[in-house]
Automatic annotation (TrEMBL):
Coiled coil: none annotated. It comes from Flavobacterium glaciei. The lineage of its organism: Bacteria, Pseudomonadati, Bacteroidota, Flavobacteriia, Flavobacteriales. Pfam families: DDE_Tnp_ISL3. This is Transposase. Residues 1-266 form the Transposase IS204/IS1001/IS1096/IS1165 DDE domain.
Length: 272
């Protein structure tokens, strides 16, 4: 099973429980419940007979405490697996936070330079880097390749990365930390080795001095048991995210959701 949340209309959240064996087709939806409050969701899922719920052996979810409580109460025999992509996403967001911090600094510097040029009655000219970007453009355009592995960079992105990392070593250090975390999940097959590599990653984070990465490190420590369960079957919440994308595509096809009850009726007719 997978459990996740999605928005149908006006930002209203629904908790969706899906069956991985359905592969996004008929038989995928097990339950769709309005809201994300654990008590409300549990009361609905518990309408499914306990004998059936006890057959669930594994459930993937994110780090949200309410999802963990729902999984624990409703599926007592299921091993909880924290989605590795959710963990990696936190690291990438921390990396982007560092890039954005430097971008705001670059904007401030440019504004100061423009104001100074006006006072001196001269024309302001932005400094252009060797790849044709200004400093502000470099930091804005670097957003895309920082999400990707180096092996997937284009030639232009490689050139931009060389300049970015030379000017901002902190961004390179943060990028390496994010990629190291990804490699632990991609290149480790054993739970014990995974635990050892995560411990080494925590040490690197401590030495980096990045506050946001330290926050992620603490979150991983607090959820390490369910994160390490990934190495049992390499299960992720990708199927739930894929199904959420289907729902959004279905919603956009009909230009939004006017009647939520009827929309849910159609979804369950097709996917339940």
């Amino acid at each position: 099973m997978s459990i996740d949340e999605t928005s149908l209309s006006n930002g209203e959240l629904y908790t969706i429980l899906t069956n991985k064996a359905g592969k996004g087709k008929k038989g995928s939806i097990v339950a769709m419940i309005a809201g994300t409050k654990a008590d409300a969701v549990i009361s609905i899922i518990e309408k499914i007979p306990l004998k059936q719920r006890n057959q669930v052996t594994e459930i993937t979810l994110d780090m949200a405490a309410n999802m963990e409580l729902i999984a624990k109460k409703c599926f007592p025999n299921a091993i909880q697996v924290t989605d590795r992509f959710h963990v990696q996403k936190l690291a990438l967001e921390a990396l982007q936070e560092i890039r954005i911090k430097y971008r705001w600094q670059a904007i401030d510097q440019e504004n100061d330079a423009i104001e100074k040029a006006k006072k001196d009655n001269r024309k302001f000219e932005s400094q252009v880097l060797t790849n044709g970007d200004t400093l502000k453009q470099l930091l804005a355009r670097s957003r895309y390749f920082l999400y990707k592995n180096k092996s997937k960079w284009s030639q232009n992105q490689i050139g931009r990365a060389v300049i970015l990392f030379e000017l901002y070593p902190d961004i390179q250090k943060a990028y390496d930390l994010a990629q190291d975390l990804r490699n632990i999940f991609e290149k480790t097959t054993d739970k014990i080795i995974g635990l050892s590599r995560l411990a080494k990653w925590h040490e690197k984070v401590n030495q980096s001095g990045f506050k946001s990465f330290n926050t992620i490190s603490r979150s991983i420590v607090n959820h390490y048991q369910t994160i390490l369960n990934y190495f049992n079957n390499r299960s992720t919440n990708a199927s739930a995210e894929s199904f959420n994308a289907k729902i959004k595509a279905f919603r956009s096809q009909f230009r939004g959701v006017r009647n939520v009850a009827f929309f849910l009726f159609r979804l369950t007719n097709i996917y339940a």
